[in-house]
């Protein structure tokens, strides 16, 4: 069950460092409900073999969900890979607002993702 308390500065800083190293910003254009229109969409994700840290981050920041799946690798028959996905625009904005002051590597990408989310709301 998710913790409903506000994320602390320490939580945000830790999540920012983790996202800077392991996170991905996935901007894309998807078809809207109206067939002739397209909408901007953003997904944030972090991949990790050990899901424990992802569950802790998800519970502290209180956005997204964690999924684990089996993936095949060249030298191994399989391995478990977990992902923390943040897909809802309001959650993406909340997450970016939390970590943005502490990011270094992905700061520009997150700024663009925030602008992309803003476009979604101004249809």
TrEMBL record:
InterPro entries according to UniProt: Homing_endonucl
Name of the protein in its database record: Homing endonuclease LAGLIDADG domain-containing protein
Native source species: marine sediment metagenome
